[in-house]
Write a structure and sequence with these properties.
235 residues, mainly alpha, Tetracycline Repressor, domain 2, 72% helix
């Protein structure tokens, strides 16, 4: 007679179903993703795009958004006209952070797709898993950049000087150089965190320029401080 206790059939099937569900969860969701209800329940055609934007890892959006707010606040104080940034600017920066982070992650996954396929944590991402093609990813990235350009124009039109803030637009577009170079920095330096700091905190300079239409020493000092902040948290 077996020493193992007999499990009733109904309880055994429930346990097996739960285990099967857990396994399916691991297969369907990338290893570095978290549970996000609206993504997990999204239609099959949409879900890979949401994961390509890394909406299942939303912390990156906050880390891109807050430096923009820091810059807006400092730039507003620099002009000494208001005590707090315009609410519309904060909202537009939030939308821009979602889109720009999504475009950056999409580009990063395109560049790293062959490496990601060899790593357990990342092989479930949309490109190495085959959920999306590289062509679809390029088109999606372009769509995000176009939408992000629209939010940039909206911020620059609402310039505190009453004219289109061309300077802030140039500062914002310059960030694309850092975004484009980041995936390759992981191949040529032991300190990609430093480049990530330059990239993620460019919003400090943009926010300051959007509020003050210039860049002064306080903006650069805050940018430097946030750069070391990023090196710390990313390491």
């Amino acid at each position: 007679m077996s020493a193992e206790p007999q499990v009733p059939e109904n309880r055994r099937s429930s346990k097996q179903s739960a285990q099967a569900g857990a396994v399916a969860d691991t297969i369907d969701r990338p290893g570095d993703a978290i549970r996000v209800r609206f993504i997990d329940r999204a239609p099959a055609k949409i879900e890979p795009y949401l994961r390509l934007m890394r909406l299942d890892r939303p912390i990156g959006i906050w880390l891109l958004f807050w430096p923009c707010v820091f810059g807006l606040e400092l730039g507003t104080s620099f002009r000494a006209e208001m005590t707090f940034p315009k609410g519309s600017h904060i909202l537009l920066c939030a939308i821009g952070a979602i889109l720009m982070r999504g475009a950056g992650c999409t580009y990063n996954d395109i560049v790293d797709r062959n490496i990601d396929a060899k790593v357990a944590r990342t092989r479930g991402r949309p490109l190495p898993s085959g959920a999306l093609t590289v062509k679809q990813a390029w088109i999606f990235m372009a769509a995000q950049l176009v939408a992000d350009f629209g939010t940039l124009m909206a911020i620059c039109i609402e310039s505190p000087t009453g004219r289109f803030n061309r300077f802030a637009a140039v500062v914002a577009v310059t960030s694309l150089f850092f975004v484009a170079a980041y995936p390759f920095m992981k191949r040529i330096t032991w300190w990609p965190q430093a480049w990530l700091g330059l990239t993620f905190n460019w919003g400090v300079l943009f926010g300051f320029a959007a509020a003050a239409a210039t860049l002064d020493a306080p903006a650069w000092l805050l940018f430097a401080g946030c750069l070391f902040w990023t090196i710390g948290y990313d390491t």
